[in-house]
From TrEMBL:
<feature type="signal peptide">
    <location>
        <begin position="1"/>
        <end position="23"/>
    </location>
</feature>
<dbReference type="InterPro" id="IPR003854">
    <property type="entry name" value="GASA"/>
</dbReference>
<dbReference type="Pfam" id="PF02704">
    <property type="entry name" value="GASA"/>
</dbReference>
<protein>
    <submittedName>
        <fullName>Protein GAST1-like</fullName>
    </submittedName>
</protein>
<keyword id="KW-0732">Signal</keyword>
<comment type="similarity">
    <text>Belongs to the GASA family.</text>
</comment>
Length: 113
């Protein structure tokens, strides 16, 4: 019984290698099929590249070092819901997301953390 499972596992591995070889010989790569918004370097950073359900984890990271976690999370999630992006890091970098950067309070201060 163990030899049958081992055989099937080896067969699956060989098929996976053959499929990868075929894709590379045709000149295809997985990264060529991904939309620009899913590019690992830009995903979640450029405006409109996040889905609304992804705002929570991004805002957790953005607000991780503040002493005012609750208001930071509130406004970060509000801004993310509107702009669908959160700048990278815990501070600054707002220039990569113009909507996030340009949304101001009534007094003219920044709305988004």
């Amino acid at each position: 019984m163990a030899t049958k499972a081992t055989f099937l596992l080896c067969l699956a591995f060989v098929l996976l290698i053959l499929a990868q070889n075929q894709a590379s010989s045709v000149g295809l790569s997985i990264s060529q099929h991904q939309p620009k918004a899913l590019n690992a370097r830009q995903y979640g950073i450029t405006e409109g590249s996040l889905r609304p359900q992804e705002c929570g984890p991004r805002c957790d990271t953005r607000c991780s070092k503040t002493a005012y976690k609750k208001p930071c999370m509130f406004f970060c999630q509000k801004c993310c819901a509107k702009c669908l992006c959160v700048p990278p890091g815990t501070y600054g970098n707002k220039q990569v997301c113009p909507c996030y950067n340009n949304w101001k309070t009534k007094r003219g201060g920044p709305k988004c953390p």
